[in-house]
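Quick one, T. Sequence first:
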Amino acid sequence: MSDILEQFDGLLKEDGPAAIIIKQWLKPVGSNVICPPTYANSEKEEKRAVYNVDRFSDGTSSCVIDSIPSQANRIEPIFARIEKGKLVPQIAIAVKSKRGDISVDFLDVGHRAADAIVRFSSIASKIAEAIDAYERHDSWPLAKLAPTSLVFGLWDSRRKPTVKIPRLINSIIRAFNVREYSRKAQYVSSLRDFEAAGVLRDKGDKELSEVGMADVPAPEGLGGVEALGGICRDASLNLCTLRDITSKNKSQTQALQRYILGLSLVAMTYFDGKTLNLRQGCQLVAMPEKPMSRMLMDSDGTETTFEITRESAIAYAAAVAETFGVGPDHMDVQFNAKTAKDSLKKDKGSVAPGETVKA
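Structure tokens:
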């Protein structure tokens, strides 16, 4: 056991490497034309959404296929599946709704420990205490409660002063030298004469089209991009920031850093069909002819090969998690709608996690 625990200790030394970098070339399934994410147009008068495409003076171009925040949100849920969810505490937040009660998995929450559904829940005070401890350079409580918030970062922007936990992993997927396509469509009503079928035609074509009873030509829209220069995922694990994660009890710091390193290595290397199925029209897979490269980068810029696989990362993470002692699950957390509503009162301002607001 000691061999596997000490396997990557060189990465945690102050004079160790600056980062682990991964490059993975990908290819689309089916058509070479894929659908990137769309964003609001920066031109206020132009309402049509746009792709995030950068065009350069040398004629090349780059298009974001999956952004850094989006990648983090795709990767985090894998910790509900890997090792049967035993690498991190599992948290379920119950929400009472008029449409039916639901349970929200903490690992699916976009802003992690700083998300509104967490801040207005029965676990809010524990989260607040853990974040406050992080500010005092003690990450142990947060690692016991919500360790993925240390791996993928968070911005607790609703409290004063705000707290930012920098993400350890930056992962982004880009397409290069892209060719953009447009799309046109025509909606055809399934019934040619609704009036003859008993529907009184006392409305105009616009009103009829809103309920699907009139033919409508759709305006020209985005039709995807073709990556003439390939599609690549670039990911890095910031080891310098990881070394800043410490415990108030200095004797616990090594176990803490090993644990967070284990989770980070799993997050860096674990990519399956689900995590690369980005959206409709954008399903990607690895390119066997261009295997994933894994490198250690030193502060002087030199690079050396880093030997790690998905399987070895999971084995290491499981071993260090056992030594660290993964925090308990919290499967009975309740969302507090009253606290959330009270936070909207203009005269009260923002509400910190765990705070109650007087009516």
